[in-house]
């Protein structure tokens, strides 16, 4: 027993010594071999600097580092250049190579082993001169990314047909070159303890409220996960109320939407490895708006926006109202319509709640299946599956034809919401409304609506009320709420953002 305890203490002491050595300014090939040398894709290229007997090693990962850049510009400069040690002290050799030898732009000196290992795993090459405490990190990253294309998750009717990619550098360059905003600032962060990813917070310095920037940065710094693979992780970790079904940050692939938000005084969050940027803070009205609302004339934009609000109401309450009227309040239905509905439901063996749940769940399954199937098959399967199930259910007498119309209207209305994730809460709450209607009828629907409104009124996104500018009431900002007034009238930025510059034009 004592021998096992002594062995355990020795192992623990070795671990502590190893960690201590990694934090010291002592980097050598053996230490790096111990850390990452067991990986088959890590290359250790040993050579001599210039014409002198100065041994060095170049460490990089095959596939992540640009081998052509290494072979053409780095290795020839290091091996063929003569170093006069009479003029250059050995301890100052890394700085001399950085300033006088290497012809690449991204070179920096580093002494931390953890940082060196992280850079190697990210695609950088490391130049290690044997016997010296510091190394040179060379920017040789060559990540394979797709070309800039039209956003897939957000249809573009009118406007620039470019979307973000998985490359953070591409995304920041798109924002930088999109409108040539002079005071556009990018603040870098790293998230993920084990798998580190670069993250950027973007804002316009002359417009955005400093308190909002500080709050966003504070929440990002609190992220403590091994891996942050997608911006959805960031969204869930920095939102105000994780119990709410409503998204409190807006995710988008469209640079024009991000630029418009930045010019209102909002903040954008871009994560390496995902084309989805986050916008904070967000309001409910933003979820029902599209950049095309501003590209079209104000009359057309207002009509389309009002149509979306009506569609949201239909998508949320139509099945619940059907259940309430059929089960509890048939007297409120016009006589001829009531007779027609009764005749179609005469052979249906189930109550209205069961048949509504059957069709709604079938539609949700078809919608999810259409998303997961290959693109050539998905849309066809969704349409054909819906027609077949609806027709077969009516012919079998399981559901009434009027309910098929109700469910179809509900599904079509939900498709009018510009963003996919904004429609998910409505799909979930629709079932809650149906259950309330089945228990208390129209009174249950009204109670559900009141509870929903009370929750949304209290909900905030980075301190901004979710229903703003409706709650708190600001009539001057209703120019861009349910209607879209002419652009020449909307000269002020939203007051809820507390922008430094409240005027859109000077």
TrEMBL record:
Record's subcellular location: Cell membrane; Membrane
InterPro entries on file: Spore_Ger (IPR004995), UPF0353/GerABKA_families (IPR050768)
Record's keyword terms, sorted: Membrane, Transmembrane, Transmembrane helix
Disordered: region residues: 1-21
Family, per entry: Belongs to the GerABKA family.
Protein name, as recorded: Spore germination protein
Domain of life: Bacteria
Pfam family, one: GerA
Mode of membrane association: Multi-pass membrane protein
TM region(s), chain numbering: 306-328, 348-366, 387-412, 432-453
């Amino acid at each position: 027993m004592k021998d096992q305890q002594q062995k355990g203490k020795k192992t623990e002491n070795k671990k502590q010594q190893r960690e201590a050595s990694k934090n010291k300014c002592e980097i050598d090939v053996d230490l790096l071999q111990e850390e990452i040398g067991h990986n088959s894709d890590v290359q250790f290229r040993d050579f001599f600097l210039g014409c002198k007997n100065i041994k060095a090693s170049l460490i990089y990962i095959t596939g992540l580092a640009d081998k052509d850049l290494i072979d053409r510009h780095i290795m020839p400069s290091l091996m063929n250049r003569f170093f006069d040690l009479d003029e250059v002290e050995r301890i100052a050799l890394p700085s001399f190579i950085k300033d006088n030898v290497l012809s690449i732009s991204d070179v920096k000196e580093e002494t931390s082993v953890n940082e060196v290992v992280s850079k190697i795993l990210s695609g950088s090459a490391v130049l290690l001169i044997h016997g010296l405490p510091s190394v040179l990190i060379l920017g040789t990253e060559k990540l394979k990314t797709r070309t800039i294309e039209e956003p897939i998750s957000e249809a573009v009717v009118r406007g620039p047909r470019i979307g973000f990619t998985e490359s953070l550098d591409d995304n920041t360059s798109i924002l930088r070159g999109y409108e040539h905003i002079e005071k556009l600032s990018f603040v870098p962060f790293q998230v993920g303890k084990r798998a580190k990813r670069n993250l950027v917070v973007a804002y316009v310095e002359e417009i955005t409220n400093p308190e909002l920037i500080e709050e966003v940065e504070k929440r990002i710094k609190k992220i403590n996960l091994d891996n942050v693979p997608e911006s959805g992780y960031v969204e869930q970790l920095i939102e105000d109320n994780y119990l709410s079904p409503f998204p409190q940050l807006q995710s988008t692939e469209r640079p024009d939407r991000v630029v418009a938000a930045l010019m209102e005084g909002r903040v954008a969050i871009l994560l390496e490895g995902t084309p989805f940027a986050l916008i904070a803070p967000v309001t409910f009205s933003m979820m029902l708006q599209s950049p095309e609302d501003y590209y079209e004339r104000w009359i057309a934009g207002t009509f389309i926006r009002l149509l979306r609000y009506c569609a949201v109401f239909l998508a949320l309450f139509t099945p619940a109202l059907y259940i309430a009227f059929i089960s509890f309040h048939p007297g409120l239905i016009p006589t001829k319509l009531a007779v027609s509905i009764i005749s179609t439901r005469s052979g249906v063996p189930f109550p209205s709640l069961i048949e509504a749940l059957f069709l709604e769940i079938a539609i949700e399954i078809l919608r999810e299946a259409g998303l997961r199937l290959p693109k050539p098959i998905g849309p066809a399967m969704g349409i054909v599956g819906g027609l077949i199930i609806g027709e077969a259910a009516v012919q079998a007498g399981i559901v009434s034809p009027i309910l098929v119309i109700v469910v179809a209207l509900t599904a079509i209305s939900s498709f009018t919401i510009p963003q996919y994730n904004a429609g998910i809460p409505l799909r979930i709450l629709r079932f809650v409304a149906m259950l309330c209607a089945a228990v208390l009828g129209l009174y249950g629907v009204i109670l559900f609506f009141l509870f929903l409104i009370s929750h949304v009124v209290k909900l905030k996104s980075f301190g901004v009320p979710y229903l703003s500018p409706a709650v708190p009431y600001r009539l001057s900002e209703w120019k861009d709420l349910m209607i879209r007034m002419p652009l020449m009238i909307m000269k002020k930025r939203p007051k809820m953002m507390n922008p430094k510059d409240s005027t859109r034009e000077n």
